[in-house]
């Protein structure tokens, strides 16, 4: 999939819709995606972001939320950035 569609914006934000696109590993090509989504009034919520480096990068890009198989990793990155943490959830 190309990083940009024929309209000059990333496919995930084309026509004010959310859609699947390349994952966090595709690096700098997607850096503008969250900004473009926000300009269209969309939230950016990537999922299955498990590597701490990817979590760090996506938070830096301004995503709204992160879904991970390892929420403790997301909390660790957020804490290191002095971000407000959501309440912890007990695991049964």
Automatic annotation (TrEMBL):
InterPro entries in the record: GP_PDE_dom, PLC-like_Pdiesterase_TIM-brl
What Gene3D superfamilies does the annotation carry? Phosphatidylinositol (PI) phosphodiesterase
Per UniProt, residues of the GP-PDE domain are: 1-78
UniProt GO MF annotations: phosphoric diester hydrolase activity
Q: Name one GO biological process term.
A: lipid metabolic process
Write the protein's name: GP-PDE domain-containing protein
Organism annotation:
Caenimonas koreensis DSM 17982
